[in-house]
């Protein structure tokens, strides 16, 4: 045996200096089994055993080794001597890289003599670096189970069907593009897993697998499947989710033993009735019933339907039975197919700022759009209407999904949604189909996997982390239930930053929910990955804690002693009968529930800064914004040419949907009649991916002719949302905890200007004006004077965008060359006189201000118009000319 060691080049490395190693390895040699994959130097120990106890080693029937071992190549040369070997496991994945991901093993091939192991029935080569299947495998006459998942295989051998005794084959997570026709020769194959490959089609010969009971083809690129699958009479589960299927054979519904057909997240637009009505079919995530598949299809059929492009300020359009396409100024698009409306129908729309008292976000939801209201609410269309909503790109939100959410009048629900980025504008669009109009918004949520649990049981796994699995045994329920699974990944860096403890580790956060209030009849088995850096090799079970949280995340209880925890090298497994949040922690801390509560609370908070900037050309224009910390520098860079002001505030923490206020103090005031002004303070709602920005006009009661005014703006917390953890709410009560930050505002000393104390510049008279109409709201002479005060040296740009000619602009500038105020007034009132009879002149004024970069003035005009419209409606109602509908009452009450 010493000669063997020398031949193998081991020398002292064989363990001469570590006498305990052979003893420890020898203790693993029992009942003809040798499990060395959990040891870092398992191959070295195997070689030592073969040198010293070779007679026993060659009798081994079950052998497990790690392919992450650097001595694997030497070990492979000995394996053909183990003639009695029945099960051989050469898996990688036992080591993790710096990011916590499993490292694939170094195995790229097998010695040809492995094919002489005539007793071998089980071979596991998962998590390796195989690009082709070793040819020696095809010469294993007794092979029944073959696992080559998580490799780099691009094809299977043409004669793969020669493995005549194969009953289980898994090649998931490879790069297979097609299958050999000989796969149909696997006559006794029962389980075939080819998920997460690159398969584009299946050979007809797959239909010859008459004993196959479970066929897993999810996560490929299949656009169709062969009709021959209807020949698989033994098939119980067929998984085809996350492919590109546009159709499926109706004959699948006739399979006598089929208990689950998963067609979720495909491109199915029409499904045979036999399949669609089957209780075991899952179709979520398909654009069923959509007559317009995509924005591209919308453009390609542009000549067939009437197209409407609505300008800013318009709030309605008419749909006829011929259908139409509609594009709003804000980028929202509609497609009404022919026949959607049987009679001409007036559609009303508006976008609303989200109110947290009405828009209830779920845990870890992020709002990506304003609220779109479409009326009439009670009408049902004959065909589904397509809606495209632009939304803020969630670039910092990984492993999440975007959905359109709609309000039914009582609660919010998520619609089947597809997302796309437009090539030219780079805008992100969320697409949905509806039969009723209501309120709509776009949110980003944790990825949601769901399934129906029948009496026979089933398996649910996370698409975010496939290592998280939930197994429902037979008899787990009497009636079919719908179960949802969500996962929140948490990095080790986040845990360390929040806890200030490098020894703390946590698994991904798992949320399980169901549509039944009754507990399961049998325990449900849950598999969670061990926290990063923790494996079966270094696991100290006294430091491992399983936490259970309520659905509001307010309490976290340590249930480690209440369940039976089983461990493998990479996973922890336990059983429960009811669903909630589950979290696996690894720490030396004792009061782990309190730590988890703190971490969970912080995971829902955003670190933000406040900015207060003044327009360089007009310091009375103040821009206020609450900006997430990582966006502060880009925002300031974008504004620096037009604005100036103090450095951003210190960092504070806020929740999604939290209210806060801005109060101007020490000699600075604002218009108290603003709709968003509450007790003299501006009201804001913080949404991390929306613009929490307002530009307002400030004044000062102090006489500024003699001196400047040094004031400030302070930010205060408002009402705490209901869903915030109790501890966070308690800490925020009291006057001291409401203040967030204060920033200085300075109004410079000014020379007397026109319009102060209602004065007018000499030689300038203001004609009476009423721009617009009574129904849409008027702009009066006083309103125009207020607008003129906010315009500065950019008056020429505004005038050109209003439609004045270059000659008019030059003449106005020359006639009033000594007085900027007169230039502004002359420009505005000249435009107003020319357009006083135009009913759309107010909309044109708003558009011109936006095009000139004066969103602040555009917002003021829109506010004036909204107030005018409200007063008009109230006056109509007072004289009894209009009845308030119950729909409007409910809408106003909710808003």
TrEMBL record:
ZU5 domain span = 313-446, 447-588
Please give the superkingdom of this protein's source. Eukaryota
Any Pfam family hit: ZU5
SUPFAM superfamilies xref list: DEATH domain (SSF47986), RNI-like (SSF52047)
Task: Name the GO cellular-component terms.
Answer: cytoplasm
Q: Which PROSITE patterns match?
A: DEATH_DOMAIN, LRR, ZU5
Could you name the active-site residues?
436, 438, 578, 580
- Site entry (Cleavage), positions: 437-438, 579-580
Task: Give the protein's recorded name.
Answer: p53-induced death domain-containing protein 1 isoform B
State the organism named in the record.
Answer: Patagioenas fasciata monilis
- Entry's Gene Ontology BP terms: apoptotic process; DNA damage response; signal transduction
InterPro entries hit by this protein = DEATH-like_dom_sf, Death_dom, Leu-rich_rpt, Leu-rich_rpt_typical-subtyp, LRR_dom_sf, LRR_domain-containing, LRR_R13L4/SHOC2-like, Peptidase_S68_pidd
> What keywords were assigned to this record?
Leucine-rich repeat, Repeat
Domain named Death: residues: 780-865
């Amino acid at each position: 045996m010493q000669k063997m060691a020398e031949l193998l080049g081991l020398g002292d490395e064989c363990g001469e200096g570590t006498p305990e190693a052979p003893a420890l390895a020898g203790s693993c040699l029992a009942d003809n089994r040798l499990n060395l994959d959990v040891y870092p130097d398992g191959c070295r120990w195997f070689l030592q055993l073969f040198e010293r106890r070779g007679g026993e080693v060659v009798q081994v029937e079950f052998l497990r080794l790690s392919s992450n071992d650097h001595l694997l190549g030497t070990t492979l040369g000995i394996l053909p001597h183990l003639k009695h070997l029945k099960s051989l496991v050469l898996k990688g994945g036992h080591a993790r890289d710096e990011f916590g991901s499993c490292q694939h093993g170094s195995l790229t091939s097998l010695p040809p003599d492995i094919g002489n192991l005539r007793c071998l029935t089980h071979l596991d080569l998962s998590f390796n670096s195989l690009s082709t299947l070793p040819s020696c495998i095809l010469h294993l006459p007794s092979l029944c189970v073959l696992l080559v998942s998580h490799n780099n295989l691009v094809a299977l051998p043409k004669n793969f069907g020669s493995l005549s005794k194969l009953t289980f084959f898994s090649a998931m997570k490879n790069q297979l593009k097609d299958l050999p026709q000989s796969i149909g020769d696997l006559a006794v194959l029962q389980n075939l897993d080819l998920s997460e490959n690159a398969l584009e089609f299946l050979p007809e010969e797959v239909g010859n697998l008459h004993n196959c009971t479970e066929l897993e083809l999810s996560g490929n690129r299949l656009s169709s499947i062969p009709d021959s699958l209807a020949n698989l009479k033994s098939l119980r589960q067929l998984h085809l989710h996350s492919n590109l299927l546009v159709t499926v054979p109706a004959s699948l519904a006739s399979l006598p033993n089929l208990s689950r057909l998963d067609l979720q997240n495909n491109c199915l637009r029409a499904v045979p009735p036999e399949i669609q009505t089957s209780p075991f079919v899952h179709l979520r995530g398909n654009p069923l019933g959509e007559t317009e598949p995509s924005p591209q299809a919308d453009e390609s059929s542009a000549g067939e339907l009437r197209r409407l492009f609505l300008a800013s300020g318009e709030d309605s359009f008419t749909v006829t039975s011929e259908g139409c396409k509609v594009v709003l100024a804000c980028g929202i698009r509609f497609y009404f197919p022919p026949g959607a409306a049987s009679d001409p129908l007036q559609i009303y729309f508006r976008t609303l700022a989200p109110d947290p008292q009405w828009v209830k976000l779920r845990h870890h939801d992020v709002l990506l759009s304003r609220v779109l209201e479409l009326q009439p609410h009670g009408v049902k269309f004959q065909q589904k209407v397509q809606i495209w909503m632009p939304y803020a790109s969630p670039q910092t939100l990984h492993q999440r999904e975007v959905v359109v959410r709609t309000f039914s009048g009582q609660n919010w629900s998520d619609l089947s949604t597809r997302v796309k980025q437009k090539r030219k504008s780079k805008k992100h669009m969320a697409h949905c189909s509806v039969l009723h109009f209501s309120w709509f918004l776009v949110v980003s949520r944790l990825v949601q996997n769901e399934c129906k649990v029948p009496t026979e049981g089933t398996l649910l796994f996370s698409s975010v982390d496939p290592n998280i699995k939930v197994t429902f045994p037979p008899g787990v329920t009497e009636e079919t239930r719908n179960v949802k699974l969500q996962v929140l990944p948490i990095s080790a860096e986040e845990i360390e930053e929040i806890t200030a403890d490098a020894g703390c580790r946590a698994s991904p956060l798992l949320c399980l929910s169901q549509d039944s209030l009754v507990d399961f009849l049998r325990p449900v088995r849950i598999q969670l990955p061990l926290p990063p850096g923790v494996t079966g090799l270094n696991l100290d079970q006294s430091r491992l804690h399983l936490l259970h949280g309520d659905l509001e995340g307010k309490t976290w209880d340590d249930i480690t002693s209440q369940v039976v925890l089983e461990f493998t090298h990479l996973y922890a497994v336990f059983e429960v009968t009811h669903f909630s949040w589950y979290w696996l922690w690894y720490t030396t801390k004792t009061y782990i529930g309190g730590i988890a509560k703190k971490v969970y609370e912080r995971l829902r908070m955003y670190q933000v800064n406040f900015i207060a900037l003044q327009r360089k050309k007009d310091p009375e224009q103040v821009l206020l914004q609450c900006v997430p910390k990582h966006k502060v520098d880009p925002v300031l860079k974008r504004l620096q040419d037009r604005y100036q002001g103090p450095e951003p505030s210190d960092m504070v923490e806020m929740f999604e949907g939290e209210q806060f206020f801005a109060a101007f103090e020490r000699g600075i005031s604002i218009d108290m009649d603003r709709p968003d002004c509450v007790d003299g303070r501006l009201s804001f709602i913080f949404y991390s991916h929306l613009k929490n920005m307002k530009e307002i006009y400030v004044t000062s009661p102090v006489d500024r002719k003699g001196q400047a005014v040094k004031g400030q703006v302070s930010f205060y917390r408002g009402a705490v949302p209901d869903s915030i953890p109790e501890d966070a709410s308690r800490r925020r009560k009291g006057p001291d905890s409401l203040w967030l930050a204060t920033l200085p505002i300075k109004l410079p000393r000014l020379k007397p200007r026109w319009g102060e104390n209602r004065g007018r510049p000499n030689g300038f008279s203001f004609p009476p004006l009423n721009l617009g109409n009574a129904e849409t709201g008027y702009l009066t002479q006083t309103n125009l004077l207020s607008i003129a005060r906010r315009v500065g040296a950019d008056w020429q740009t505004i005038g050109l965008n209003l439609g004045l000619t270059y000659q008019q602009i030059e003449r106005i500038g020359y006639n009033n060359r000594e007085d900027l105020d007169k230039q502004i007034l002359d420009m505005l009132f000249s435009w107003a006189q020319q357009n006083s009879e135009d009913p759309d002149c107010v909309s044109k004024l708003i558009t011109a201000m936006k095009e000139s970069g004066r969103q602040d003035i555009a917002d003021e005009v829109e506010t004036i118009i909204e107030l005018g419209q409200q007063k008009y409606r109230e006056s109509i109602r007072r004289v009894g000319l209009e009845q308030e509908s119950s729909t409007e009452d409910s809408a106003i009450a909710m808003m």
